[in-house]
Amino acid sequence: MMLFDKQDITQEKNITTCPFCQGRELIKKGQRQKKYETAQVYYCKNCDKKFTPGATKHKTFPLRIILESISLYNRLNTFEETAKNVSEKYGIPLSFQNISNWLKDFKEYIPFQRMREFIDKKYDKRDMLVESKLFHNQIYDFKYHRAKTDLILNEDFKHYRFRPLRDFLELIVAECPHQIFKESQLRASEYKDIFNLDQVKISPKTNAATRNTNFVLQAVTNNKLRHQILQEFMLVNDSVTVAVEVPVLLDKDDISHYKNSLNFIVPITLKDDEIITGHIDMLQIRNGMIHILDYKPSARKQKPIEQLTIYALALSRLTALRLYHFKCAWFDEEDYFEFFPLHVVYKKKRKKNKLTARRAGSPG
What we know:
By secondary structure, the protein is α+β, with helices and mostly antiparallel strands. The protein has helices at residues 63-74, 79-90, 96-105, 113-122, 125-128, 146-155, 157-160, 163-175, 178-183, 208-216, 226-237, 252-261, 305-319, 341-345, 354-361; strands spanning 26-33, 38-44, 49-51, 129-136, 138-145, 186-187, 203-204, 241-251, 275-286, 289-295, 326-331, 336-339.
């Protein structure tokens, strides 16, 4: 599968921040002609410097061609197959050496390389990934990296417990109740400000997701394609993303279980025929946890706690895995914020200070 539609490769994403001073007073100052693209030159009024943006500043080929090639290769195509496919699509000569060089130059963005040799011996490229279009009012491109998931679960004992997640992902294409997703009027993303966030710590983190996003989105000129292109790149090229656009649902019985059996605080009431649905942007398995990720442009201005918590509650029920094993996060090119969904719905009773307890119990 190709990352990009065939389009004018001279198109370029508009830049809003100066790479030298982070200033935002930028103006376009002409263009610089490269061999296969025309690069926009910017001038920063704040630091008085000119620059051409992008990770490919000193590269002959546009970034979108580099991304396309890297991803095709990591879908277990050979160097020759990758070069032939990309060359035919864009009408430019591409060699074995070009692709080999890019894998070295951009290795920090493609840790899947460490897994590729082992997976290539064990899996056919047609079976490595499961892909399906889900027609749920709009089209969602569900993708599941079977080979990566198997390797993650088997190489680390603390991940072995997450086999039920793999079982769930394997069944989505065959058993997803599509009609429910088409008919449901309740979307997880529509719930706002319903949870008590006491004891919930939202932690800004340094994470590879922001670095990858900043790298990949330099090549995206159509904002409508940001999710799709970022999901594809991370699923195919990182070492922890195992699925994207994962459908989940939560019904009345699930809510009842959380409230009555686990004593969770879930301020949602559903009728018998009401079901909350949603699609998880990205699922990762790393550091002994299942991570639910959502790409949100302007992440610093948003706080999708409800949406992500509902995703976690739904996935926990669908896989029979404890909510304790889940983390949630949202991110963009600059910021990454994470929290434990368990802390949203389960509040620990605070122990009274011994001195306070004595005073409260002594006669007045």
